[in-house]
Every structure is written in C-alpha cells, then in structure tokens.
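Wait, can you check?
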Amino acid sequence: MNAQELEWNDLRIVLSVCRQGSLSGAARELGVNHSTVFRRIAAIEEKIAVRLFERQATGYAMTKAGEVMLASAERIEEEFFSLSRKLIGGDLRLNGNLRVTAPDALTMEILMPHIVHFCQSYPGIILDLIIENDLLDLGHREADIAIRSTKSPPDSAIGHKLCRLGATIYGSKTYLNKHSKTTLDQYNWLMPSNGLDWFSANQWLKQNHPKASVAFRSNNLPGLFEAVKNHLGIAPLPFFLAEPLDTLQPVIDPSEPFFSEPFTSELWLLIHPDLRNTARVRAFANYLREAIEQEQERIERPFGNKIS
C-alpha cells in the first residue's frame, strides 16, 4: 500500500461513499456527477492496490480495508475542522463569511427584516443564510450559528435560550363552520412529518386521540399553514404564523396549559465553542438576541384570534 500518495481529497471521496453507501449519494454530497466519483474511487483503489468497496446491488459496502480507511479519515477530518474552527475563532475582524442556519417559517415571518438590517449594518460580513429545519453539524462547519427550535439543545454547542415558541391547534373558519358538530377525533388532522422537531404534536395526538385520522403531512410549517388556509383540516401552528390571519382561529384554547404545552417549544441560539470569540459571530449573536427581545411577545403568546 503506497499510502504516502494519498491526498486529503482522496479521503474526502472515500468518506462520502462510506457515509452515503452509494456513488449517487456521494456525488450529491460532493456536488459532482456520478461518473466522477466512480473514476476517483477506481483511481484511489489502483493507487493503493487495495479494494475499498464491494459493489453490491444495494450499494457500495466497505471492505475491511475500507473500514480502516474510514476510521483514519474521520480522525483526520475532525482535526481539520478543529484547526479551521480555532483559526476562525481568533478572527477579530468584522468582515468575512458567516454561515447562519434557521428554520423556514421563523425566518420568513420574524427574522428576515432583522437579518436584512444586520447585513446593512455590517457590510463587511457576507452572510450565508441556510434555511433548514434540520440541525446542521456545527462541528463540521456546516454552519457557524444555528437558530433552532428545541427543548434539548446539544451539549456540544454553546446555547442561549432566546424565548419560548407558543403554538396550538388552528383551523380555518370556513372549515370549522362546515364541521361545527365534528369532534376532535373526527377532524382531518394535518400534522408535521416525524422529522420536524418543532412540536410534540404527533405524540400528543397518538396518546390523546388514537382514532383521529391524519389526512396530510408536511416536512415544513409553511406547508401545514397553506393546507389549513385552504380548508383541508386542522393543524398545530405557532402563534406568530397563524394569529395574524383573521381567517384562522384556534381549535384548542391556547391559554389552557394542558393543551398548549405539547405544542410549545423553545428557540435557541447555538454556536460551536471554538467560534465564541469570533467577532462576526459575536456581532450576529448579540444582534439576534436584541431582535428576538423585540419580537418575544409575538412569538410566545397568542394575540388576535379568539375561540368563538
């Protein structure tokens, strides 16, 4: 094995195929085409004279040599990202790239005007906004700052709780008037996909209304919101999204703790510890905390619609 000829890009290709289990998955992750990954894997195996993968109908399975390379490559990758974070962590300049990830509905309804004002206030900082509901890997620099709805922030990040995220069940007035004699079990329920970590609504519905029918699911809140607006059924929605629309009304009184608690989450600002002293990270974190203070009542509490 002529290991001295291996390069970091070789390890990146192998890592991606190992993790994705297929050439097509690795190609998507790396932003290249399928044939490029195929040629690179073949060239690496020829270079080291060792087969790293068994080609199977279900995908690429690691050989023993592939498992050894994966373990070493992951250690090298972690050292690389650690070095990158530490170097950036000492950057005292208010310029450069800043990767921020935030959930879709919150970004569009609450955060965007504040983000725009931040960019205008700090023209030297190039903000790369990733609108994503899944928590990206801060350790691997997929994002520098994450704004997330969760009741269990990861221990690996520095977390600052911004506020609570209030929510309850909403339906359109048209739908509710049409089904005025319908019980909760009989409504069409529109629910978040299991991967959407905004609410514990799926567990609540299963425990309290096991006979209820789920007619629609969405992996994002705007999808649920639009389905409710178009009279498909009822759904858990945050106050900030549903309350401004006078065509919607709560199905369950949001002031009742027993009902509101399963749909309530917390909004957190998360930063990797190595980046806590980076000037542009600190600037955005401080700015966001002040912005959320201005929006806190709108996010936490219902304000417009009443149960009729």
